[in-house]
Amino acid sequence: MNKRLVAAFAAAALSTTLLAGCGSSDDGGDGDKAESGPVSLTYWAWAPGLDKVAAIWNAGPGKEAGITVTVKKQASGDDLVTKIITASKAHKAPDLVQAEFQALPTLVSNDVLADISGQAGDTKKDFAEGVWQQVTLGSDAVYAIPQDTGPLMFYYRQDLFTKYGLSVPTTWDEFAATARALKKKDPKKALTTFSATDPGLFAGLSQQAGAKWWTTGGDKWNVAIDDAASTKVADFWGGLVEEGAIDNQPMYTPAWNKALNTGTQIAWVSAVWAPGVLTTAAPDTKGKWAMAPLPQWTAGDQVTGSWGGSTTGVSNDSTHKDAAVEFATWLNTDPEAVAALVKNGGIYPAATAAQTGDALAQAPEFFANQPDFYTKAAEIAKTTAPGAWGPNVNVAYSAFKDAFGKAAQDKAGFGPALGTVQSTTVADMKKQGFPVAE
Amino acid sequence: MSVTATPLDRRPGATAAVRASAPRRRRRAGLVPTAVLLLGAAYCLLPVAWVLVASTKSSRELFSTFTFLPGTGLADNLSALSAYRDGVYWRWMLNSLFYAGFGALLSTAVSAISGYALAKYRFRGREAIFNVLLTGVLMPPVILAIPQYLLMAKAGLADSYLSVLLPSVLAPYGIYLARIYAAAAVPDEVVEAARVDGAREWRIFRTVALPVMLPGLVTVFLFQFVAIWNNFLLPFIMLGDDEKFPVTLGLFTLLQQGASAPALYTLVITGAMLAIMPLIALFLVIQRFWSLDLLSGAVKS
Q1: Are residues A285 and A255 both part of a single domain?
Q2: CB of B59 within 8 Å of any CB in chain A?
Q3: pLDDT averages per 10-residue partition of chain A, 438 residues
Q4: Euclidean distance between CA atoms A126 and A142, whole angstroms
Q5: Which of A86, A252, A279 has its CB closest to that of B237?
């Protein structure tokens, strides 16, 4: 996607948005005024403990540079995207925002995020290519600094795998066989569940299979949510649900916590941040889990997708963009800052140096039985397929929850559900005025 | 409830039997509604009971022990909640009290004056104004939040205490209730008599109408208090500063910490438990004013 295209989409989105008529553009920030004297920045973010990291900045490098950052803690997710877009329409967006990778195109097309390539171009070297590509949206611009990533991995209960004589699956075929074998040995247990409320996981699994949901060609978007790779993933999980080899209940519910804690579900396809979730979801299983690479579609491959991960963006409304970029860069690349992020926020840093650095020298406490946890994780992180996001991921995600939720409950195939997600997404993009190739 | 009783009477030959056992029938007809009401009460109270029990559980017990078995972690939960980010929860509670208490008070005052005026004065455009207000009752506040935000931002008030307070002051439903109540409870004759005695309009409103309208206004206050206390979308859109959040929004940030950080269930549940306490207390205190309602009805005829 080139820069002009992004601008064109931004214009299209704005002209079709009713609200744009209400906001005047006369008081729009023109960016960098001469920066003299102390600067104070606001930062909307949700990662726990970010205020503590900002305090380190305010006491040290920030004090020297005369830049103070205040974190205003927000709730994460698509709701925050809506909130920021609304604030930006009124030209009241904060200087800095935490944004998930998949939200970046939405924020860019709504003119929320500033192009910071002038200030942050050099930061590219600190990140893996696939990660950096997601903050440039494939253009010359840079819209955010990557903060954390969530490469997918396979987590399993080591003790129960031994008990039932199961081996760790390295391919998805083996994964299906493992699920069936477990059902045969103990019908009350399930290897894992397919959660229709977590589109992010499905997107990551499709990414691994080679799907690129949003791409641009010429001056049009191509939407391929129901392409061959995604269909393969949907049919695979739909088949397992249909035959009852795995559970069909959503994740992140009290019932799911209980299933993990009592060992009714003995494995979890999740991202690198899983230990933090397991610590509270399944406290009784400490030290009984192990992590392995995600099963592959072709034996011998080394590819994974990602689930979650976020960035630090600078808003167009900020009158101190240079200062904001300076802080964002420090936050996500400085060893001290990243170490504090890992310690207070429990995130997995996006900066490549940090992934093998001191902050991650020790395995998470919950995985003390796997001392090389982060060494392994860094190897897996290198194999992450880049995400390909479009301007209405939120719409696709809510269509996913509706369509797949119904299909999972009915134990019907996921193929038609995937088609629904595709058509809903395309229809919404057209309604918003984006040119879409059929 | 009459619906459940009617089929009984329509049974062939029921009339004679009914006449013979009239007292028994009345008791039986009373049993069904009571059972239905009890079911309804259980339906409404079970979640509350769940919150009460769950707030006593430690995070380890929360999802592993029997649902209605009280746990041992209440004290720990309370202190963890108070310690979370240096007690920001209590700040949210104070904010909620401020928004709901002050907002409900202001809105009750506005409702009382406008309701009284709409009920007791005849002026051109009265029905038009009232119809616009009625449309306001039908309009869900949710769809107004974003336009209100844009207006507030224009006025430079976004992300301030006023931005949440001001939109709650005008409550169409409150004005509607106050008008209906004033029309029914304040007799025209009394107002006329006061005028004849030479009282000014403001004084009539204050000393004659207001005391009679009080039970109705208490209802308006309660409605508004609960509505503002539970309001989510308006503060969500208006406020960026987590120091100004009401408790609903604050607890939401504990739940939505991003996929990589688990929701702080025990803190949220304990926080929710504490957050319903002021509402319960308010209802218990204000109940006394409601019994006044019956008295005033008796006096009137």
Answers
A1: yes
A2: yes
A3: 47 40 37 63 91 93 93 86 91 94 92 92 87 88 93 95 95 96 94 92 95 88 93 94 91 86 94 88 90 95 91 95 94 92 87 86 89 92 89 92 90 90 95 88
A4: 14
A5: A86
